[in-house]
User: What shape does this take?
Amino acid sequence: MSAETLYPVAEVAEMWRCSREHVYEQIRRGRLRSVQIGTGKAKTRIPESALTDFVEKNSRRTKERAA
Assistant: This one.
């Protein structure tokens, strides 16, 4: 198993310049993978690869190629 950077939801929200609730909504909808490292929202982490996957799947360039 390789070590992968895991980001807290608050840090992802800051990077994306959106609310934490928006990030949690993406997780709830199954659009953004996450890892639970305990109980409660504060223990949710997002793997770096999940951020890359999300951006690739939701970028306009990717959608334009599919059309």
User: Anything to note?
Assistant: The first helix runs from residue 9 to 16. The mean pLDDT is 89. The chain is about 50% helix and 15% strand.
